[in-house]
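User: I'm curious what two different proteins look like when written out as structure tokens. Can you demonstrate?

Assistant: Sure. I'll show them one after the other, since each token string lines up with its own sequence. Here's the first protein:
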Amino acid sequence: MAATQNTPTSCKVILAGTVAKSLSVEISEALQQVAPLLVSFLANTDPAARMYADWTGKTCKENGLRFELREVDREELEQHVLAANIDDLVDGIIIYYPIFGNRQDQYLQQITDVSKDVEGLSHRYIFNMYQNIRFLDKEKLQKSILPCTPLAVVKILEYLRIYNTILPYGNRLFGRSIIVINRSEVVGRPLAALLANDGATVYSVDVNNVQLFTRGEGIKNRRHEVIEKPEWGLKDCLPLSDVVISGVPGDSFKVPTGLLRDGAVCVNFSSEKNFGPEVKEKASIYVPAIGKVTIIVLLRNLLRIVQNRKGLESQPAKAVEKPGTIEEAAPQRKGSIEYNF
């Protein structure tokens, strides 16, 4: 069973390590065929970036993957990335941001070879994600890569059975109402799009406004659309939401517990605690952090891009999925597109 803390019996606390452990099994099985090399670049003094690099290296070692941390000057980072792009010994590349803290960081994301981009930040991957295009090829053997943190939240919701596996593949969040508090381009907005593309009604909330991400009535649209909700705020969205996902930076924000639905599922992806301790009195499930799942998802992305490069030879569409999960191949519903995470 999932790990719990000393909480009231009405609320179960799910630790990120529990979810990560279940995903590690898939990685171990896939490594019977390949042991790829992940090269990471650290070109800043951000303590959070250093911690993320250390965690990634530790997790790689625990799961039998090769990891190499290269610390470089930020002015030389571009040339180091370009060299890694053409190095046949390098299977995947990750850069720990921020580097410059401006559009130059976006440029660095785009010069990373798409076939080695384990973070899923290349334009082609981002375009596919928003357009609900789930494969890179017509044969549907090479899967598009998704950004790690949004995908980590998806994997947690899958673990919690928020995804309804009885429904057709690609529509398994139909009937769910979800609020995502954070609309950053890194996590919040991509996450809202992913959840809406899988059928959920998603309220995307930031400091300025509320947007509704939806595939329309009866999820008849192929991809999500965005509808402005003027005058709406947390007071309007929270009581409607089965799942509450929050990632607001800083320690001053707290999700108003009084507005939560009884039995809501609450997930925190901020480095700060967006939920007060009283959340356990109202939530049915609470996930206080997702860091360990994010790193495991990064490693799964690494395996995926290696398998994608091998093409038909390694059957990438089946390599790291378990039967019964959201990733298992399923008949495609008319009007939907298969998206195996």
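Here's a second, unrelated protein for contrast:
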Amino acid sequence: MAPALIHDPMDHDFLHVPVGATHESNQHKNNQHEIPVLLPDMFVSFLSRKPQLNPHYESIRAESEAWISETCHLSPEASKRIAKADWSYFAAVMAKEAGSDEYRTACDWGNWVLPFDDMFDESSLKEDPEKAYLEVQNLLAAMQTTDPENELPQCSPLVEAHNSVWFRIAKKASRGARERFVHAMVDFCNGVVDEIKFRSQNIKLDPETFKKTRRKTIGVAPVLAMIEYFYNLDLPDEVFEHKSMIEITRVAVDFVIIHNDLVSYSKEEREDGDYNLVMLYRLGGMEPQEAFDQMGELLKALFRDWYLALAELPQWGEAIDSQVQKYIEGVQDMLLANVNWR
């Protein structure tokens, strides 16, 4: 989840994007120039409100960043990237009312996922699906138990860090919340391996296939599953099996994909990346502004789908409905965190 842009003084969001070659020769790329494109307005509807921060943000941020650096034996450069990313800010908006222990777990998971992603994006694993599969199997093995005393296979420091996060979630979360988190992590890991297969085999994806894969690798589903843990919710499975809740989850994930791909496009273009929806529209023949306008239309459709899904939510009774509303508030807070993450 990439940081959002800062508003410019004229209240119009412009991004300067490279134009010219799209994945062509280095010589042609050297002749690229930049033009401004108008970004869709991302700070509308429930995303227009000012974010609130968890009161433990400053103190726990330092603790969590130090913990991940020490536990995973990160290099000074990697530790600096963690600090610069400031996932704890994202978590502070997303879990604004969580207790200190729950907020710390949110920080630790996000600070863990950054070097975990780097391992597949920048190391030898990025083009080796078999090695990547073995690594994620080690990660998922610990999640078959809720007892940290059980014997676990030998694993890397990154996997050990995630084991710590998992056992904290497993100790407090309801059965349903635990199962949803595990399912989300399985999907996330499968998506990571699929992405590596596509890259290693140079498979080019159309926009719809891209979105299906990206919904797994974007890492939103595990974060949504943690909302129940943050606020000690105990929602029955039937709530999440209802079509409206399924749609709310889909819309939330797609919001993050579109927001992130809008602000990361220039970087992807310069680095010959193709795991970006704007890039796929450009490769399909759209001009830069046309591609960004298309993303804006997708955002409008998502807001419509969000409110339609809310309108069709059934009533389960006061005890459940109050928890459903808290969960939905948490989903909105997660989206607010994403567009304001600095």
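A detail about the second structure: The radius of gyration is 20 Å.
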